[in-house]
Amino acid sequence: MSKRTSISANQGIQGLMNKPKGGNHKNMTFELVMPSCNTNNMSVFLKELSKRYDEDLVVLACDGAAWHKSKNLEISGNIIMTHIPPYAPEMNPIEQIRQMGVRQ
């Protein structure tokens, strides 16, 4: 594995890559537009993400959505999935965006 990278995904099954320190890297955005959020589509996303960043270790921080924790989810070898704790909106980027809308 060549570089440390991290990725976060939201309900639209898309990822935004943080640029690794001190180096050039491929396009840092990765997303797939899928018709729905489910285990099968999440598996497709992970497979394509793994192929795109095949030389990197990808750490994916997910919320508690059922398709993120399914026993049938196919996780590629260069992807590590971690889950944020339930009821921790300060750790979930989509909740931050939602709160901005509530305040306005």
TrEMBL record:
Segments forming a coiled coil: none
UniProt cross-references to Gene3D superfamilies, sorted A to Z: Ribonuclease H-like superfamily/Ribonuclease H (3.30.420.10)
Domain of life of the native organism: Bacteria
Record field: compositional bias (Polar residues): 1-13
UniProt cross-references to Pfam families, sorted A to Z: DDE_3
Annotated spans, Disordered: 1-24
Signal peptide feature range: none
GO molecular function terms listed in the Swiss-Prot or TrEMBL record: nucleic acid binding
Residue span(s) of domain Tc1-like transposase DDE: 25-97
Name of the protein in its database record: Transposase
